[in-house]
Q: What sequence folds into this?
């Protein structure tokens, strides 16, 4: 079994040759010099049928999720997306209608997010569909929001709501029969079509200290910030922003309660830390962008992330291990 | 069946939004603004087991070929390679020893070519191994060697020798029993481990007009230059530079003679055009770099590439269709 984190640390990190552009391979992007006072943030993700999406998912949504997952990485770094390079590894028997709908999804989101495909590669393989996107965004020199700048005393913030996508995956897998059609469809849509916070990300420059997007699960990802920043974090369970649909799904017994919410992943919201003095500015920004920003915890000395209940008692900590832990937060 | 050229033209070209960085998706790289008077040349290739290499090929050679194929694109554009972003889609049951040898191959060539891995993604899939590399190289602004600048009257040049890799593939497939071990091993090595002409490429800036690396086959690739430059080309069969091993293989009946040589592909040599006055400088460069540079033809008004014999009679033209065409050039 391939352990991504082990592989990166053991096999790939030695290949950075100490170049600062790599950010030690512990962040979501590389930063290379750009024109006049700017840097390019470069991120690259791969997605495969049967792993990141279902082979029979609508092709336009597969295309759009591919773009959005990468734009989410750029947004969380404070970068404005500009260019995409796309490698498509199509199954040999793929049909023309599928390709047209896939391209149509690409077009929709390229237009929506004002990004252009500037290169890539197309191959046909005997295996399932595999896609790899390289996304390039611009950020003023030195202004990129990294994982490594969280300070003890910072507040921890999250955009939007958490857990919808993990619950949406369960709906896609045929669970969630007890849900209303509206709720089921909302959650499914959040799984299939994440909304990268491209308007928020660049506005967080100068406000946020550390920042990343939530893809592996909230508690795992705040753990990444803790490790990169050499700090600890306390996340307050009863502050976690849940959508109406997620609350309904938890009440209906979908998933494993809070475990699913904090470790399900695929949220593609921005998780960031900021000094307490930034609170007013952040709330004003939230109102301006009409995007919920919620203070969910704080950065503390030490290491690791701890989830606490309303009385401050530790409910879970570290990475993984939430299996015994299924009480809903509401 | 996926037709790469059709897909790019029909589905992906509309996604460039007219951005000049894309070079209309008809070149091997995109060019984005870099620091102070420079541009970044960015290329992205995908390779899959069972398509671009054999699943049981040595993992270090798979890794090194992946790097070299991309560096060849950069070299042919006159760019100096700096950074790599690597997406690895490993089969779920891949073993640790394989991964170590793969990483060791990456390390060898990162050191050799002085490039650093600065990002990427690692996933596990139910399918065969798929790899995608994004390579980034630097070129002075406006100095990149494109496919589109060939001029009528130019000479057509080729680095190294042509056809070794196509013959090496046949050896890998178990043909070539009649060859000496030395010749078979030479050809196999040329197939498995191309030598990107990274020293030559940047030195061609200011000398070459149009340039690209030979990956699809010599005659197909000069056709790409013709289309991009709106010119024709005449390639002289008896000028094609063949290795001793390739000559021996053709004599032994391996492959389909000249057809295999000019359409086999995977050569990863630089094919370029230059004004006749550049000949002395190119021959001096050839001597300096100890790398064969051979004048193989000329650019003419019109369109399409024509292969001619020693008497100037057309032997083949256009893209593909060399099936009836098996006389050796020697």
A:
């Amino acid at each position: 079994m391939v352990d991504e984190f082990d592989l990166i640390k053991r096999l790939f990190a030695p290949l950075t040759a100490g170049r600062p552009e790599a950010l030690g391979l512990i962040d979501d992007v590389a930063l290379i010099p750009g024109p006049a006072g700017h840097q390019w943030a470069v991120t690259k993700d791969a997605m495969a049928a049967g792993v990141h999406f279902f082979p029979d998912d609508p092709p336009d949504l597969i295309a759009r999720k591919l773009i959005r997952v990468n734009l989410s990485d750029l947004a969380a770094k404070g970068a404005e997306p500009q260019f995409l390079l796309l490698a498509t590894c199509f199954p040999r028997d793929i049909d023309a209608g599928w390709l047209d709908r896939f391209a149509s999804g690409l077009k929709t989101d390229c237009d929506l997010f004002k990004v252009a495909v500037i290169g890539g590669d197309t191959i046909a393989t005997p295996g399932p569909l595999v896609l790899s996107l390289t996304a390039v965004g611009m950020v003023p020199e030195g202004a990129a929001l990294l994982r490594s700048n969280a300070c003890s005393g910072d507040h921890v913030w999250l955009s939007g709501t958490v857990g919808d996508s993990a619950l949406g995956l369960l709906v896609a897998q045929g669970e969630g029969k007890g849900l209303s059609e509206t709720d089921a469809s909302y959650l499914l849509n959040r799984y299939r079509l994440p909304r990268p916070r491209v308007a928020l990300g660049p506005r967080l420059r100068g406000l946020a200290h550390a920042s990343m997007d939530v893809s592996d699960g909230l508690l795992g990802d705040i753990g990444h910030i803790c490790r990169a920043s050499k700090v600890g974090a306390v996340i307050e369970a009863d502050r976690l922003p849940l959508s109406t649909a997620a609350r309904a799904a938890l009440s209906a017994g979908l998933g494993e309660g809070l475990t699913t919410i904090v470790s399900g992943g695929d949220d593609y919201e921005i998780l960031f830390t900021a000094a307490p003095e930034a609170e007013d500015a952040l709330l004003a920004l939230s109102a301006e962008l009409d995007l919920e920003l919620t203070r969910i915890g704080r950065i503390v000395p030490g290491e690791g992330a701890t989830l606490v209940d309303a009385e401050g008692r530790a409910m879970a900590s570290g990475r993984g291990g939430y299996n015994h832990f299924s009480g809903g937060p509401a």
Remarks:
- Residues 155-317 of chain B form a domain with the Phosphoribosyl-aminoimidazole Synthetase; Chain A, domain 2 fold (CATH 3.90.650.10).
- Chain B touches chain A through 69 residues (CB under 8 Å).
